[in-house]
Amino acid sequence: MNARAWRPLLLWLLAMLAGAAVAWHSRFSADMSFFLPARPTVEQQVLVDQLKEGAVSRLLMLAIEGGSAGERATLSRALRQHLAARSDFASVQNGEAGSEGAARDFLLAHRYQLSPAVTPARFSVDGLRAAIANSIDLLASPAGLMLKPYLTRDPTGELVELLGGLNAGAQPDVVDGVWASHDGERALLLAQTRALGSDTDGQERAIAEVRAQFAAAVRDTGLGRLRLELSGPGLFAVKARATIRDEVTRLSLISLTAIVAVLVFVYRSPRLVLLGLLPVASGALAGVVVVSLAYGTVFGITVGFGSALIGEAVDYGIYYFVQSGRRGLASWRRRFWPTVRLGVLTSVFGFGALVFSGFPGLAQLGLYALTGVVTAALVTRFVLPPLAGERIDVAVPERAGAVLAAGLRRMHALRWPVIGLALAAGAYLVAQRDTLWLPDLSVLSTVSAEDAARDARLRADIAAPDARYLAVVTAPDREAVLQAAERAGARLEPLVADGVIGGYDSPARFLPSRAAQAARRASLPPADTLRPRLQAALADLPLSADKLAPFIADVEAARRQPALDHHDLEGSGLALAVDSLLLHGPRGWSALLPLRPAGTGDGADIPVARVRAALAGSGVLLVDMKGEFDALYGDYLHQAVVLSAAGFVAIAGLLLVALRSPRRLAGVLLPLVLAVMLVIAALHLAGERLHLLHLVGMLLIVAVGSNYALFFDGSALDSATLMSMAVAATTTVIGFGTLGLSSVPVLHAIGVTVGPGALLALLLSAVFARRAGPA
Amino acid sequence: MIRRLFAGLVLASLAATAHAAFTLDQLMGALAQHPGGRAKFVEKRTLAVLDRPLIATGEMTYTPPDRLEKRTLTPKRETLVLDHDQVSIERDKRTLTINLASRPEALAFVDSIRSTLAGNRAALEKNYALQLTGSADKWVLTLSPTAQAIAAILQRITISGSADQIHTIDYLLADGDRSELTIEPLGPR
Fold first, then answer.
1. Contact A481, A475 (CB under 8 A)
2. Tell me, what DSSP letter sits at residue A84?
3. SS3 assignment, position A696
4. Which of A204, A569, A635, A744 is deepest in the core (most CB within 10 A)?
5. pLDDT at A184
6. Does A539 touch chain B if contact means CB atoms closer than 8 Å?
7. C-beta of residue A279 within 8 angstroms of C-beta of residue A728
8. C-alpha of A535 from chain center
9. Which positions carry the signal peptide feature in this UniProt record (chain B) (predicted)?
């Protein structure tokens, strides 16, 4: 080997070492970001923030099953006590009495700063008369029992007003003093982690802590028969990561083992097998490095795609070893390298189209595969020859060659049946075109149907907020954002009164802006003014003013109360309610005002257009989370259609330039298009739920399948070439087919589409080959 | 409310036992037979803090065994619905829903009337000691709370009636305030 041959080898070695260093320091992630838009709109940003950091993303729902109701309640109390002592949780609730007392005391103490009803008019003679008369009416009603102890302190009923806002939403049932499911068979707890929803490590720690403390609580109470059920976004994230981690290992192992077995069978030389894997390893490493450098983070699913890459990248080595055996390196380079190179380029165009996707996961898959394929081809072309040496001896059994050639001749007869079948598939696809693609992002979710059902059940039992509709205001600081929230509330209030929406929450409800608090304090008259007004107001009412001394004292005290601050809320249980609706990010502060639909029960919707109209011009953003999700998936799907079409056109253009003949182009493309039609129709017929990754798979069938179709173009094929193609196609089918075993929908879809598609592309190319058999 | 004498048969059976001692089981049996219906009510609340009693009037509808609707018409419209363990109060266009299971003492309080209407002795005896005086024609049932949590709010409930018909319910609260409910059946809807 001379110095010129060593140079690429040295370069390769250095690149691999550098690559290994980069890969070693790469950040791998298995979180939701895979699916979240790379360039979000303002509305989508709200969605992204909520999924990554929102209060709902930090909720874990716990259920205790088995035993008697009393035992479950005992264990629920013990578990709450254990968890509340841990720093991993911002709050742990199980409906125990006592927590509400603290909130009520806080609301009572600060009612004149908190109640929106506090205005100068409320403390006029007429206002006092109306408010007190209303309270007395309330005393006559069953609801009055709750008010009676506070009448002399709070005759205008501010506390009732505030309590009304506290538990406006539905509450879980209570059995034996703790939350329970509707059927009473499970005790329920709700824990909010300190770790963000996007912090999968933190979520994993919190979940482990829940399980550990449950075990401890079981030990304390001796209630070993009871079981813990758990659900929530954090658990999904942790499970998804574990699933992806397991699958990356499992799929790569399956793919690698099967492909190595094929190579051993064909090469019958450990040296050649190892050399053949060199381009693969280089490609996989380069893919990780480039993705890591370009995106900062490598998604686990992207690495999982590696098992397909193994099957695709090993092809080049197979072509080289099998085809160059008898003719030598120089001849191979002249005769076959242009065809291999063209195949590499069609793959590059196919994967490259994905890089432009706004769907970050798809873009990464594209970049990873693109880098991997190019690297594998370059390593095959420049690094393998000096390492392999001139003498490569891969025996091509004469019988195998003859069988392949005979098969090829016979396949020619199949062209009309194939065309008929493809026409039927085409007609089927046209008939089904409206129901072909599932219009729902959730089909890409790794959450199993069983886990989703458990989550839905717990969510319904616990009446957890789904926060589908959010009004969002933003401002540079906390005071400004609270004022904006109050202005938004003023716009929403008429909608509540008209029954357009059922109600809304606001961080300003329990933490009003300083301006609003000051205005309320300024509405309170001094004792000397209040006393005569009260006398006049009570003239016709069955309540005498001399009983209301506590009221006058409280109002006087409230006039001097310092402004309510965030830290005042701590210990009341209300800090959490405020914090979950107030976000502080790099772009300033946002306040979230979740809207509740007017109707109750499932499927109650909010008339988004009417609410938007009412909020128009106020700078309030109304986000329908489900609508945004649907729109997001719609965008991805639309983009995937455009990119796939563009990728197809680019591949066709490339082939036209290379083949310089529309007829030859048609000859290469026809089998590919027929393969795509047959595969998609077959998948749909088989009941596979088709989504955008199957759509992308269609493009990849063309990109990968063209590697084989190209060999049938042009000169006749000898036994070695035929065998190399058969082996290469087998490894590719193994690589992609392995993905079909995955439970990760993204990988599964690509696997079941491209695996059979690549095989079919090879077979159909043989069927439609212009000249069959050895020359 | 709504205690209509409905079937001659029941009437006859009550008459037959009128001279024997009227037992709790007989009363409960008669009440349990009642098919439900509509009644007018007048509720008079006497509160220490107020100078004069508050009067509320309206209609009640009872659907056995566990739905009770109380529609106050004066002085202010308000609808209270007690359905299973769920009580909802609608007032000023706003609905407040309380799950009574989370407040056992409130449940016992509200449930006293419903369990009496349903003739459910077992449910009543969970929270109250029962005492019956008088005859089938004119009986008085007194409920004294046995649980500490209820006794803290309520001294006793006195219910009077004739046959399967309730006439008055008198709540005497722990702080001396009281609420007297007078019921007069209406014809079927």
1. yes
2. H
3. helix
4. A744
5. 81
6. no
7. no
8. 63
9. 1-20
Residue A108 near residue A154 (C-beta atoms within 8 A): yes
Inter-CA distances, A20 with A7, A23, A366, B112, Å? 20, 5, 21, 76
What residues contact A271, with CB distance under 8 A and at least 6 apart? none
DSSP type of residue A38: S
B48 lies within 8 A of chain A by CB: no
For chain B, the distance separating the N- and C-terminal CA atoms, rounded to the nearest angstrom, is: 14
A428 pLDDT tier (thresholds 50, 70, 90): very high
The minimum CA-CA distance between B114 and chain A, rounded to whole Å, is 14
Signed CA dihedral, A269, A275, A278, A280: sign only: negative
Contact A95, A178 (CB under 8 A): yes
Per DSSP bridges, beta strands A582-585 and A297-299 are unpaired
Q: What is the pTM of this model?
A: 0.76
**Predicted confidence (pLDDT) per residue in A15-49, tens digit:** 888 888 888 888 888 777 788 888 888 888 887 88
Helix (H, G, I), strand (E, B) or coil at A358: coil
Q: How far is B97 from chain A (nearest CA, A)?
A: 8
Q: Are strands A173-175 and A178-180 parallel, antiparallel or unpaired?
A: antiparallel
Q: What is the pLDDT of residue B4?
A: 42
Q: Rounded to whole angstroms, how far apart are CA atoms A320 and A378?
A: 12
Distance, CA of A646 to CA of A285 (rounded, Å)? 28
Cα(B75)–Cα(A519) distance, integer angstroms? 33
Ramachandran quadrant class, A627 (left: phi over 0; alpha: psi -120 to 50; beta: rest): alpha
A600 part of contact set with chain B, CB < 8 Å: no
Residue with tokens 């490259």: A352
Helices (H), A498-568: 514-523, 527-537, 549-560
Long-range contacts of residues B153-161, Cβ cutoff 8 Å, at least 24 apart: B153/A145, B153/B105, B153/B109, B154/B109, B157/B112, B157/B128, B159/B116, B160/B134, B161/B3
